[in-house]
Structure formats: C-alpha cells, structure tokens
Specification:
The complex is a heterodimer.
Chain A lengths: L7 E7 L5 H9 L3 E3 L10 E6 L5 E6 L11 H11 L10 E7 L3 H12 L5 E6 L1 H6 L6 H8 L2 E5 L7 H9 L14 H17 L6 H10 L6 H16 L4 H19 L11 H9 L4 H19 L2 H21 L4 H18 L2 H17 L1 H15 L7 H9 L1 H7 L6 H10 L8 H12 L7 H31 L7 E4 L7 H35 L7 H7 L1 H13 L6 H9 L6 H9 L6 H9 L12 H13 L4 H11 L3 H27 L3
Parallel strand pairs in A: 1-4, 1-5, 5-6, 6-7
Antiparallel strand pairs in A: 2-3, 3-4
Helix pairs in contact in A: 3-10, 5-10, 7-8, 7-9, 12-15, 12-21, 13-14, 14-22, 14-26, 15-17, 15-22, 17-18, 18-29, 19-21, 20-27, 20-28, 21-28, 22-26, 24-25, 25-26, 28-30, 29-30
Chain B lengths: L2 E3 L8 E7 L3 H9 L7 E6 L4 E5 L2 E5 L1 H4 L2 E5 L5
Antiparallel strand pairs in B: 1-6, 2-3, 2-6, 3-4, 4-5
Chain lengths: 682, 78
C-alpha cells in the first residue's frame, strides 16, 4: 500500500482482551476496511479516525499479542508491521498501545518493548472503571512520569475518554526516550558491544541498543559486524547456560513492579468474584459440557426459528419482484435471464442471509463475553487426545461460520504441525454456506408436517456433529500418525466475563452481511447468469425437462451421471455438483434455475420431490437426500477456501491433498449411505 | 523450602515460582505472561487442567505444563 503522505498511520496494539478492538471500533466506526488477513484477532483491519481538530489519521488494528517475541504467525505479522517490514503497509508514524488498567503490570510489559522500537507511543488506559471497581486507583500523570509516555484513561465500551484520546492523537507525540529498566550485567556487556559495532557501521543509528537486543533475540537484521557479534554472544551464553532471555523478562517485570509501586498502583489479590462463580459451572468437568451443548443447541434452534421470519420476507420480496418483471416485461430471452437466471440464482442465496447473520451474532457474543476462551480450555483435553491443543478450537469454531476466517485464525496456533492439521480439517466443520443446502435437502427429505422446528434443529446439529466428529478423527490421523510429534501445552488467558459490546457485535455482523451480499452480487450473480445460459442453450424442442436435457448443462450432467449414479444422483444433481464446485450455496441457486422455480424455497422443494427417474421411481428418496447431505458435509466445494489454504500453506501440495481427501470422503460417505439404505430396505 | 510442581498445590493456595523446566519457547511465553521465577501465583482451580491467578489475570494451563512449573509455598500467606 502506498503511503498517503497527507495522513499519519498509527498502529493500535495491545494484549488480547485489553479492549483493543472495541476501542478501534469506537474510534473508526463504519470507516473500516478489512484486508486480506481475517476475525477480530487475525484480520488486517484498517480504519480512518479523526482527531479533535478534524485531522484524518489511519489506524491499523494489529493482532493481540503478549510480547514482541513472536511465537505464532499473527504475532509475526504484528511485529513486521511495527518494524516497517510488512509488505503493502507503511511503517507506522506512531503506536497507540491499549492496556487493561486492571492488569497493568502484564499489559505494560508489551509497552516497554514497543517503546524501544523508536516510535512515538501513546497509551490508552482502558477499562479504568474495572480497575477502580477492583480497588486499584490510577493516577495517569504519575504513570506518565514513571514510565515516560502519555496515558489517557478510557472506557471504550462506554465511549468514555475518546475525546481526550482524539485530542492526544492530534498532538505531536514524543518519542519514548531511553530504556528505563536495568539490564542484567552479562547482558549489558553483550548489548553494549553489539550496539558499538552497529554505531561503527551506521553512526546515524540512534537506537543501536534496542536494535542490538532485537539482533540478540534473532528478530532483527543489521550490519554484518553486529550480526557476527550477536551470534558469538548467543553461543557464549549457551555454553555458560546463562538464560539471558529469562533475565530480560525478569528485569522488565522488576522495573514495572517498582514503577507501578511508586506511581501508587498495586494489584492486590482479588477475592472470589462472579467470574469465578460462573467458571465453577462453566469449567466443571460434567456441567461444563452441558453448558457447551446447551449453547450450541440454542444457536441451532435460533438459526431455524428466529431466522424464519426475515427469510419469509426476503422470499416474498423476490417472488413479488419476479412477478413484477414478468408482468411488465415482454416475453423474451432478456426476461428469462432476469427471472430464471438473476432472480432465481441471487434470490436463492440471499434468502439465507438471516441465518448466517444469526450465526455470526452468536459467535460474536461468545467471543466478546469471554466464554470462547473457556470453551477452548474445556476442549483442550479432547483436542489433546487427537494431537492438537485447545487453541485449535477457536479456528475450528470460526469455521462453522466460514472456513476462510477459520483458516486465517490458525495464525494464532503456534505449532506449525498443529496449524497444518487444523487447516486440513477446518473445512470439515459445516460452514454457513452449507446451511442453504442442508435446509433445502432436509425439507426435501421429510415433509414439513412431520418435521417440526426442533426436529430440523436436531437434524442440522447431527450434520454438524458428523462433520466435527470426522474432523477430529482425521486430525488424529494427520497429527499423530502422519506428521508425528506432540502439540505444545496449553497456556491461555481467561478474561473476566463481560457484557459484550453490542456495537462491536453489530459492526461485525454488518461487515459479514456486506461480504455475503458482495459475493451474492458478484460470484453468485455471474455463476447464475452462466448457468442460466448453459441450461437454456442450445434451444431444443420438447417440454422443460427435455429442453434442459438438451442444453449444455444437461449434456455435462449426463456425462457425469454414470460416475454419480451409484450415489443415487441424477444428471440434474450432477449440474448442481459441478456448479457448486466454486461455492456450495450455488447448489441451491443452480437447482432453482434447473427447475425454473424463480428463487422460492418452497417451489424448489416441491419440484425436487416430484422428480423421478425414467422408470418412474423417485429420485429424492430419503436415502438420496441423506447421501447428498453427507456429500456436502464432506466435499470441499469452495474455491475461496482452496485459494486461502494455498496462501496460508505456501504452495499447492497441501491444498491438493485437502481437495483429494475431502472429495474421496464425500463420494465414499454418500455411497455408503446408499449401501446401508439398501441393506435395511429403505 | 520444599519444592513441588503446580499440580501438587491445593486450589486457593498461594505459591512462589521457583523454577521452570519446560522447553525454552514455552518457558519464555510463561515468563512473559507473569510466571517468572519468584513471581507469586494463586491456584484458583485444580483438576486435570488448572487455572491460576498471576499478574492480575486468570491463566489456564494444561496439567502437563503445570508439572513443569516448580513452586514453593509462601510463608504466612496461604
């Protein structure tokens, strides 16, 4: 990205759970852009904020991190941005550190490291209300005096302190100054020598000491002389068994304890509070699982019950639109394109927007309330059995919404083999794009009268469970049998329970709605038009079915039919399978086009139910519907996922493996459903 | 003073970290999150995996990691 010289770039950094994203949202509102690294914690998010004097500044929301010693890919990205080494981003002009005021000692550890990067630093002292409620009195001016940077008290979730923060962002920020913590003697000698070599090569370098320390940790680059010295000192420390990295951490904490003490900030032991009382239930070895199952069931029931109303409105809207077009446009190819191509294709997918939004709303609430970390903790033992750690749970859970943010969220997973395994199995977690396919096929499998809302929710939960169980089984094979070794042990911060910031959750839903609608308006619209063309031309005589059979799409479907016949699928389903290779939800819009039902769910289900083989037997028997459902649980029908996996895995080898094993599994699974159905006489 | 690992400490007890015996990268992350040598830690929950209060926050640890954190009781504070 080319740096806009008229705007200042400010990186926003902080520990996870310090309220960084809430503050970023409060400062930027809807003026945000989501780039190509995704989720609250892993997305490359930039936004425009305004100072009190109206100056526009660009904020970069960096992934949450505990220190500048990166241990996971997302922490590496954050460090690169701060060092000005991130491709496509300018080096920030300043850094806004967001710290949790109720946990200053740990949060300021990162601030002391950021201060040594040579950039001006401003600290947002967030959640001062929580600190004060816990009996911690903070005097920002005293902190400023002791630490050497400006502190602005804020309560991001209530919008308090933002005026003062905007005023401070508008002022010229000063550099942090010299290191204040005392370097232990053996290390001071090493850093002194490396810094001297640096200054000799580059006399203009003003932060040679900070860079020498970076060089010693292996995270920096520098003149050859300094690099050689750093290597020699590392070897010497290794021989002497001197743990200099531990000494640095201890020295920083000792300095912070002293400085906070002098500024009158203590962090006494807090008594058992309501977070601990909730944890007693949520982390209970038996009751905790009940809570988790209850949450998941509530989610799936809401997807069907609450979402049904807006879905009916959208359905009615597209139906009215179709009737209007038919009433006011002359008969012809263009009208067919609009009604059978555009409205059927786009309408067939847009109708599922409410369900997808509910899914993201729930995930947002779970993350912001602090529950998601508990779920990861609870699942750590299960994950450990399959060779992963609890940290893989959050990417896998995100994959229920969409595998793309799920795969990107694996950047928080430190172990490369854990990360690879998580990426390989993430697309098996049923994503929101499968909801349209599941809903339609479930409706086709069993009449609505026999299938009340809770029954649909249970069946949907069953499909999610099938994908999840398979993901875990394959994770065990991939991680323990194929890749070998064991995952690193779990260290996870459990934030206190908080009321989720509604604004943050709604902003995230708005962002997802835009992404979904953009996709419907581009990829799905284009595919719908293409499919309409393929299923309408060449024009042949006969009834609708015969005309479709003679079309390009029909010919393609017929060629595929021998391969998918053992699964109980006909050539029309074949068209759907080919079309949905790009995106699963396209299956529904394709079938809407194939059956000429104009984007209405009810019409599609009825058309599917009345479709028969040439011998008169029904195609969409319960067994075939289940086989098709199983196929969609397993098949990797999403080109975007393949593209993201390729980028994250740095080549085609693993994405090709992923596509092969998932397609094979889908075929085998669907075939087995038919074999079992025949066996039991269904 | 008698040294033990963190899994052997009862819930609600306060201890001081005496030594970390894990892999270097893991040790570094533990220290950065407050589990430095001489740091005070209060164990909140026991069991297979455990939760500690350190440096003003709750941190969850797997039992196999807790076994590698050696601690000693703090006189008069537990």
């Amino acid at each position: 990205m080319k740096k806009d010289s008229s705007k200042r770039w400010i990186a926003v950094i902080g520990n996870p759970n310090a309220g960084k994203s809430t503050l970023f949202n409060a400062l930027t509102g809807l003026r945000q852009r989501v780039g190509n690294y995704p989720g609250v914690t892993v997305e490359k998010r930039t936004g425009t904020a305004y100072t009190l004097h109206g100056e526009a500044i660009e904020l970069i929301d960096l992934p949450g991190m505990y220190s500048l010693s990166p241990r996971s890919p997302d922490e590496e990205i954050a460090l690169k941005v701060l060092q000005g080494k991130a491709v496509g981003l300018p080096r920030p002009d300043a850094v806004l550190c967001v710290v949790d005021a109720s946990n200053l000692e740990r949060n300021l550890f990162l601030v002391t490291q950021v201060m040594e990067l040579g950039l001006p630093v401003l600290v947002a002292l967030n959640m001062v209300d929580v600190a004060e409620a816990g009996g911690v009195r903070i005097h920002p001016d005293q902190l400023e005096q002791k630490i050497g940077v400006k502190f602005i008290p804020t309560q991001a979730h209530r919008g308090k302190g933002l005026v003062e923060l905007r005023a401070a962002l508008g002022q010229r920020m000063s550099h942090a100054g010299e290191r204040k913590w005392t370097m232990p003697a053996p290390l001071a000698a090493a850093v002194g020598q490396i810094a001297a070599a640096w200054r000799e090569a580059q006399p203009a370098e003003i932060r040679a000491e900070g860079k020498a320390l970076e060089l010693l940790t292996g995270s920096g680059d520098g003149p050859e002389g300094a690099r050689k010295l750093a290597l020699a000192w590392r070897e010497r420390f290794g021989k002497e068994a001197y743990d200099w990295a531990a000494a640095v951490v201890a020295a920083r904490y000792a300095y912070l304890r002293d400085a906070l003490g002098q500024a009158g900030v203590g962090h006494g032991w807090r008594e058992v509070g309501w977070t601990d009382r909730i944890d007693a239930l949520v982390l209970h070895p038996v009751a905790g699982w009940g809570v988790l199952a209850g949450m998941m069931m509530a989610l799936f029931i809401s997807i069907f019950s609450i979402a049904s109303y807006p879905m009916e409105w959208i359905d009615a809207g597209f139906s009215t639109l179709g009737q209007l077009v038919q009433a006011h446009m002359p008969t012809g190819v263009f009208r067919d394109l609009l009604v059978d191509g555009v409205l059927a294709g786009v309408g067939g997918v847009v109708i599922f927007l409410p369900q997808i939004l509910i899914l993201f709303f729930f995930l947002g609430l779970l993350e912001d309330s602090g529950y998601l970390a508990r779920a990861a903790f609870l699942l750590d033992r299960v994950m450990h059995r399959v060779g992963l750690s609890g940290k893989s749970f959050i990417p896998l859970l995100s994959s229920y919404a969409c595998a793309i943010p799920g795969i990107m969220a694996t950047r928080t997973v430190e172990d490369p083999k854990d990360r690879l395994t998580t990426i390989l199995v993430a697309p098996l977690m049923s994503c929101s794009a499968r909801i349209p396919v599941y809903t339609t096929l479930l409706a086709a499998a069993v009449p609505a009268a026999l299938f009340p809302v809770w029954g649909k929710a249970a069946a949907l939960l069953g499909l999610y469970a099938l994908g999840t169980a398979t993901a875990f089984a394959l994770a065990w094979i991939f991680r323990k049998k194929m890749l070998g070794g064991s995952s690193p042990p779990l260290i996870l911060e459990l934030p206190p329970y908080r009321m989720p910031a509604v604004r943050t959750v709604l902003l995230r839903m708005w962002e997802r709605a835009l992404i979904f609608l953009r996709r419907a308006g581009t990829v799905i619209l284009a595919l719908s038009i293409l499919l309409w063309f393929l299923s309408s031309f060449p024009v042949t005589s006969g009834d609708a079915t015969e005309r479709l059979a003679g079309s390009f799409a029909g010919q393609l479907g017929h060629r595929l039919e021998p391969v998918i016949r053992p699964l109980g699928f006909d050539w029309r389903i074949g068209i759907g399978l080919i079309a949905s290779l790009a995106a699963r939800e396209v299956f529904v819009s394709t079938m809407s086009i194939v059956y000429h039902v104009g984007g209405q769910e009810e019409g599609l289900v009825q058309a599917m139910r009345s479709t028969a083989w040439p011998d008169g037997s029904m195609i969409y028997t319960p067994a075939t519907c289940v086989a098709l459902l199983v196929f969609y649980v397993y098949a990797l029908q999403c080109l975007s996922t393949v593209a993201v996996a390729k980028r994250e895995m740095g080549g085609w080898k693993w994405p090709a493996f992923m596509m092969t094993y998932m397609t094979g599994l889908a075929y085998l699974g669907a075939w087995m459903v038919q074999v079992i159905a025949r066996g039991v006489g269904a | 003073m008698k040294s033990m690992d963190l899994t052997q400490v009862g819930a609600g007890r306060e201890v001081r970290v005496s030594r970390l015996e894990c892999a270097p990268g893991t040790c570094q992350r533990l220290r950065e999150m407050g589990f430095c040598e001489n740091a005070l830690v209060r164990k909140i929950r026991g069991g297979a995996d455990l939760v500690c209060w350190v440096c003003g926050t709750r941190v969850a640890l797997s039992a196999r990691l807790a076994k590698q954190i050696l601690v000693e009781h703090v006189d008069g504070r537990s």
